[in-house]
């Protein structure tokens, strides 16, 4: 597991690094850690090679929120966790799909509980389905899937890399993914709750897409999203 710690304070870098080393030894997990002193350092050298990035919100040169927005332009899947003294940053963190916020000062017990959720999330991200398309069979990792669109007799899988078209009924794929944090927001769309960025009125933004929530399903959608956020530890 590759972890980046981005904080301008060396004592925070050291403490978090020691927490990760201790957790790895206790749980027999291999963890490699890279350290950065500000947001610009990681943004300039970013190659989508981290599983988790810990970002201090307030840093000189480039703050954590700005760095997260730039990282998200190139990597929608990396897990971002903010380090902060102020809980109010959680609202803005929703815009970059932050997985969690850790309030300073840190304690090992709360960090270990947090990192268990990280491990669960990474395990979830490795789940996939096989789809038959025109030129063969494709494997789609669920964490890369924004939503599935039903169009006539066809299903279109909108992923972070490309759109994949196959034949089949929406009900079949919906039943297969009902336990994997997907929700049918109307007759035509089955969305991945992990990629929901925001919603207002009857419009939900899933990745770069803005999709309609049918009026009868709006209450169920809010409930499903709330339950999902509760399970993953909040955004």
Automatic annotation (TrEMBL):
SUPFAM superfamilies: CheY-like. The keyword Phosphoprotein applies. Keywords: Phosphoprotein. Residues 129-197 form the HTH LytTR-type domain. It comes from the Bacteria. The modification 4-aspartylphosphate is found at residue 56. It holds the Pfam family LytTR. PROSITE patterns: HTH_LYTTR, RESPONSE_REGULATORY. GO terms for molecular function: DNA binding; phosphorelay response regulator activity. SMART domains: LytTR (SM00850), REC (SM00448). InterPro entries: CheY-like_superfamily (IPR011006), LytR-like (IPR046947), LytTR_DNA-bd_dom (IPR007492), Sig_transdc_resp-reg_receiver (IPR001789). Residues 2-119 form the Response regulatory domain. PANTHER family: STAGE 0 SPORULATION PROTEIN A HOMOLOG (PTHR37299:SF1), TRANSCRIPTIONAL REGULATOR-RELATED (PTHR37299). This is Response regulator protein. It comes from Liquorilactobacillus ghanensis DSM 18630.
